[in-house]
Amino acid sequence: APDIPVIDQAYSKLSNSITVEWRAVPGATHYMLTAQDGDSFVETVVKNSPGTVMGLKPATLYRITIRSINSGGKSQPSPFRKVKTVLAAPILSVRSPSCDSIAVSWKAVHMATGFAVSVMRSDGLGRMLKENTTNTSLVFTNLDPGTLYTIKAYAWNANGMPGDDFTYNQRTSPNAPADVKVAFNSGALRAAVSWMPTEGVLTYSVTVSSGPLKLRCNTSSASCMVPSLQCSSEYYVSVTAHNDAGSSKPTDAVSLKTIPCAPGNISIEEDEPGHLLVSWSSVSFGHYYVVFVKSDDGLEVHCNTSYTQCHFQSDCGFTYFISVFAYNKAGQSPLGDVFNYTTAPCCPSDFRAVFMSSDTARVTWAPVRGADLYETRAAGGSGVVLCKDTATACTLSALQCNTPYNITVYSFSEARGSNTSCAPQYVATAPCSPEIKNMSKEALSVISVQWQSNNDEATYVVTARGEAGLWHCTSTGNSCSLTDLPCGSAFSVSAIARSPVGESLPSYSVPLETAPCCPTDLILSQVTQSVTNISWSVGMGAQIYVTTLESPKGQAKCHTLQNYCLLGCITCGTNYTVSLRAISETGETSSCTYQGYSSSACCPSGVKLYRLSNNGIRVFWRASGETINYNADLCGSKGNFSCTPSSGLNHCDITEIPCGDVYTVVVAPVTDKGPKLTFCPKKIYS
After folding, report:
1. 0.70 exceeded by the pTM?
2. What is residue 7's DSSP assignment?
3. 320 in a domain, yes or no?
4. Contact 496, 505 (CB under 8 A)
5. pLDDT in tens, 228-263
6. Which residues form the Fibronectin type-III domain (predicted)?
7. 432-463 confidence digits (pLDDT tens)
8. What local confidence, expressed as pLDDT, does residue 89 receive?
9. Whole-angstrom Cα distance, residue 374 to residue 412?
10. Number of domains within the chain
11. Can you give the residue range of the structural domain that contains 252?
12. Which residues of 584-659 form beta strands (DSSP E)?
């Protein structure tokens, strides 16, 4: 084993260790240091001098020995030295109660009689502050805000021996930020808060308070955005600086008034046609209001006011979009509800009423803006006639004729209803149809027509319509006469009433038949001595004819559907009056008179023939009248012969007739005109 080492010196610089110095021992490779405190000890192996025993208790007296070591073993312990460890360092509790002070406190240190505490900026600037005290706390003031300081403290014992020192870095709390500015973003309802940066600040906190509501924003920069602000509110904005030492005092509060809220309780009234009244509730922090009214055609107007209502001009049939904004120095309120108001549709224009008949009118008008439906109302007479349609025309039927009506066309819309301010138009209906009461014959071609008059200021026109043409008569009364009507014609007679308003419907037609026409040509021819044939041209409208031949000696009459008739019982040599009645199918009669008729003279009687010679014959007869002349005709196969006696004679002679023949002999009165009579008796002569 190596030799025993000798301790040169032993001392304590730290409260938990003792350092030992010795001279080296030849052959020793290591050394064992031992510090003993009563029954406890601490050993440490080192290679050479000096060596330090660690893990000791502060302010404790230890016996220090040393032993040398090599591969052969350990030497005996050296003579001991008594060494006392220095005092423990005070454990500091440091804080910065304000931006320019640091407070240091500690617990009492065993065996300490006093303490030394020093403060100095960590960056070496400025001077060091040092205080000696027997207390366990100190406060350093007049320091720089937000600055990092190094605090060092140690205790000393009764001998003035300093113990371990304790070093602590502490930053003073920051100063309150300066030049705080608040910029309000009205559109986003947020505020940008900015300030001048402060020394030694780690973070800043911005507090925005309004009553119990507090909003905070933390940042490490010199500005902060505070969102979600409320409209119509006043906020107080303060900024506090923070670092690891604490917080600064809040800055003086800066007042921030936000934009007003959108006005509520908006009401829109059309107090009278063409005028809109927009009203709303007042808004906190609203200095004035602007109302925007935009029509559906794109035109926009606005109104500035410090009151809570505005008046606007409006047009019918428009939809207006209305929004109300409140303003203050912070800006414009958010967009609230956009209201739309549709005014009543316009009253129809270009109104026209055209009567289709006396009880039917067609009403037309130009389409108007905003109208979805139209109602036509005709008030008058005994009630109201209504017509509803989406078209711009309406037909009013079942109107009363000859009646004044107030016709109004109302327009309707789904949004607003009816425009009740439309003015009526006075319209009178056409006259009522007259009713023909009677028709009477005044003369041959004149018919009087009477009707019931039930109109005011009407002119009546009576029309007779038939195949023969049209005939008219006009009157403002209740009768007129149709003149120059043709005979034998059928007519349909109707009447209408006319007034400045219009024309009535025709009355019901009444049939009219004029008396048949008298035949223009009438021919009489004697068939036998007692039978006469009468023929005539057709009379227009006649169906039955009654012909009469009348003389003092008697009358001959016949009824026929034909245009001829045979009349018997005619007296020869007699003058007759000739009349004819033409009768229509309905019994209308025309009495026609003609030129008188004379029947032929009577045939002679007692005709006898006497031979005069071989070639002659005398014809003898008995005359029916003294003034009648006769003619004798002798007709045979070999020739015809005749003779006429002198006036007053009753015979004549025919000579030089061929013999040996059979002749027919006729003696007949001589007529002034016309053919010979052939109906007198014939005699045969051989």
Report:
1. no
2. E
3. yes
4. yes
5. 889 999 999 999 999 988 899 999 999 999 999 999
6. 1-88, 89-175, 176-261, 262-346, 430-517
7. 899 999 999 888 789 999 998 888 889 999 99
8. 93
9. 6
10. 8
11. 178-257
12. 589-593, 597-598, 605-613, 616-622, 630-636, 639-643, 651-655
